[in-house]
Amino acid sequence: MQAVSDRSQFFQGMKAGAPFILVIVPFGLLFGVVATEAGLNVFEALAFSVVVIAGAAQFTALQLLSDNLPAAIALISALAVNLRMAMYSASITPHLGHMPLWKRAFAAYLLVDQTYATSVLEFEKNPDRTPSQKFAYFVGTASSVVPLWYASTIAGALLGSSIPDGLALDFAVPITFLAIIAPALRTLAHIAAAFTSIVLALVFMGLPYNLGLLIAAITAMAVGAEVERRMTAKAA
Known about the structure:
The chain starts with a helix and ends with a helix. The protein is built from 13 helices and no strands. By secondary structure, it is mainly alpha-helical. The protein is 78% helix and 0% strand. The chain crosses the membrane at residues 20-40, 46-65, 72-92, 135-160, 167-185, 191-224. This is Putative membrane protein.
């Protein structure tokens, strides 16, 4: 009975993650094109996507390396862009943290913006699900996103400059994050953190090595946490 239930949760997760196909494919195509223009071959572009599996960080690192900046700077900047993954991990740990080590490691690898946003909202709506059911749902959401990220990277790398500029594949980047962030702005703390990050990212956008993103991310987390602390104290 448990196996059937887990299977059902997997397909529900796959269905929930399916809408992201509309942005994952052009996003991956764009990265494949940019990667080959930067001098990577098809295998290197695919390896980049498989190992890092984080679009925004991949674009950041690739751009900085293309500008002949030190590898250490590229790594630090990419880590700054991916700092949100630490928050995702902390948020989803109560739901998946009791799984066996190999499942936690697998979930950590599959933890990207789309799988986190889709899964955590569902888990909060249905907290009575077992850890096994939650894991199945989470992997289901990833099955709609991750394989297509690999495939579209390969397609973009193979097609390269033959993709017409008129397709404007770069629209996928902002659309992806808007689709993820908007449903998550459910409390004043969320809104305060988002607003802070936007304002500071714009204010410090001129700083070298993407340091403005690091400042914006850390400050936004602090503001969100403080707003939530005050709301909790007021409610108590």
